[in-house]
Write a structure and sequence with these properties.
CATH class: Alpha Beta
Order of helices and strands: EHHEEHHE
Largest sheet: 4 strands, antiparallel
Shape: globular
Helix content: 25-40%
Structural class: alpha+beta
CATH topology: Alpha-Beta Plaits
Distance between the termini: 8 Å
Number of domains: 1
Number of strands: 4
Oligomer: single chain
Number of helices: 4
Length: 117
């Protein structure tokens, strides 16, 4: 699994227009093979901040997205808005498991045998 996560800062006055301009592209991207999540959302406490969160099943799915029209259309949409700061990274996930154990306690350690991958 690959996660793309980070932030984009735009002028506060532009944030809602930018998010609205990309709304249909977000919905369409979620329909792509291997796309598990694709969300660009406003930070409720920081005007102008947009959070990017994507989950892709594998590298092939992400590559297909990067080579496809929805990715390039989203770049065009966001290209219309000034970006003051961009901090977005991709992460390859080799181990995952629930945050909560059987008793409902949040755990920072990896507590199942090997987790799932």
């Amino acid at each position: 699994m690959i996660i793309i996560a980070g932030t984009l800062d735009v002028p506060a006055a532009d944030r809602e227009a930018a998010l609205e301009a990309g709304r249909e592209l977000q919905a369409a991207t979620r329909e792509l093979p291997g796309c598990l999540d694709y969300v660009w959302s406003a930070d409720p406490a920081m005007p102008g901040r947009v959070y990017v969160f994507e989950r892709w099943a594998d590298e092939a799915s992400l590559r297909a997205h990067f080579e496809g029209p929805l990715y390039w259309d989203m770049r065009k949409v966001w290209g219309r808005f000034e970006k003051m700061r961009v901090d977005v990274s991709k992460y390859r996930i080799d181990l995952q498991e629930p945050v909560y154990d059987r008793e409902g306690k949040a755990r920072a350690d990896f507590f199942t045998e090997g987790g799932s991958s």
